[in-house]
Amino acid sequence: MAEERTLILVKPDGVACGHIGEVITRLERRRYKIEALKVLNASDEQLRAHYSALVDKPYFPGIQKFMQSGPIVAMIASGTDIVNVFHKMVGATVPSEAAIGTIRGDFGRSWGPGPIQNVVHSSDSIESAQREIPIWFPEAK
Amino acid sequence: MDHEERTLILVKPDGVANGHIGEIITRLERRRFSIDALKVVNATKQQLGRHYAHLLDKPFYHEIEDYMLEGPIVAIIASGTGIVDVFHKMAGQTDPGEADCGTIRGDYGRDWDDGIIRNVVHSSDSPASAENEITIWFPELTK
Fold first, then answer.
1. Are A28 and B25 within 8 A, CB to CB?
2. In a 10 Å sphere around its CB, with 0-12 CB exposed, 13-18 middle and 19+ buried, how is residue B44 labelled?
3. B18 near A13, Cβ under 8 Å?
4. Does residue B142 carry a pLDDT above 90?
5. pTM of the model
6. Where are the alpha helices (DSSP H) in chain B?
């Protein structure tokens, strides 16, 4: 039986600024396992499924535009308690509020009005991870 | 579509087991090469036979095969002007004991008593081999 898994996205800002390796290294340093990796351009359908809770919000088109501004990297990583631990490693949603030492606190900043560019996404619960993994890795069981 | 030169990189089982996937990608990103595709995969004997076709007849082929089957590997397509030669230099000498410091093999590899060369990464040695190797590891991108 596999250990707990989480779904991570390196968002277009993280890819464009050259932080794919850094995000993976932070997982490797803590000895989590990288189970799957993929470079892709997010489709409308994938974003609507991934952000299903936000689809009706007035700011959803902004999120969609940001998430389609360049390629992203999708990742499945695994290990004991990884969902909570990686969520902590990512930091607060708003980069200017994220603690130093977190991914967003080290690589993000706020940019005035418009969608939040916060470098990575990570699943916020085991249930979300199970829901999100098939959106980005439909070929994985 | 017109694209820049591409290369095929494998992070071998020792590189994955020792946690160097991110480091290798970071070295590409620092020089502003583009990461076009990524995949975690367990190599099959068939893929290895095609990838190492020129070594199939060698007496040490089974050692290469055993080594490459020790665990998952990460396949990468990266692109940019002159990347084949540049990344080949960044990987360093085949034998990690001879690789210069500052190269991937010189920084993360060493020789072992069992004689198996565990050299952390593979990189294509020419644009033609890169295109051939991409068909082996990313068949779904090259239909």
1. no
2. exposed
3. no
4. no
5. 0.94
6. 13-17, 21-30, 45-51, 61-68, 83-91, 104-108, 127-137
Tell if the CB–CB gap between A38 and B25 is shorter than 8 Å: no
- Provide the residue type at A106 as one letter: D
- Residue A24 has which token pair? 């993976």
A106 contact B CB<8A: no
- What are the pLDDT digits (tens) for A71-118? 999 999 999 999 999 999 999 999 999 999 999 999 999 998 889 999
Q: Domain containing B111: what range?
A: 6-141
From residue A14, alpha-carbon distances to A23, A109, B5 in Å are 9, 12, 23
The ipTM is: 0.91
Q: What is the largest CA-CA distance in chain B?
A: 48
Domain residue ranges in chain A: 5-136
Chain A residue closest to B35 (CA)?
A39
> Which phi-psi region, left, alpha or beta, contains residue B2 (left: φ > 0; alpha: ψ -120 to 50)?
beta
Whether B51 is catalytic: no
Structure tokens at A40: 């892709």
Check if CATH label 3.30.70.141 holds for domain A5-136. Answer: yes
User: pLDDT value at position B143?
Assistant: 63
Identify whether the C-beta of residue B73 lies closer than 8 Å to the C-beta of residue B16. yes
C-beta atoms of B21 and A29 within 8 A: no
Amino acid symbol at A120: V
Number of domains in chain B: 1
Q: Which residue intervals of chain A are DSSP H helices? A: 12-16, 20-29, 44-50, 60-67, 82-90, 103-107, 126-136
Provide the Cα torsion B122, B123, B129, B131; round to 10°: 110
Does B1 reside within a domain? no
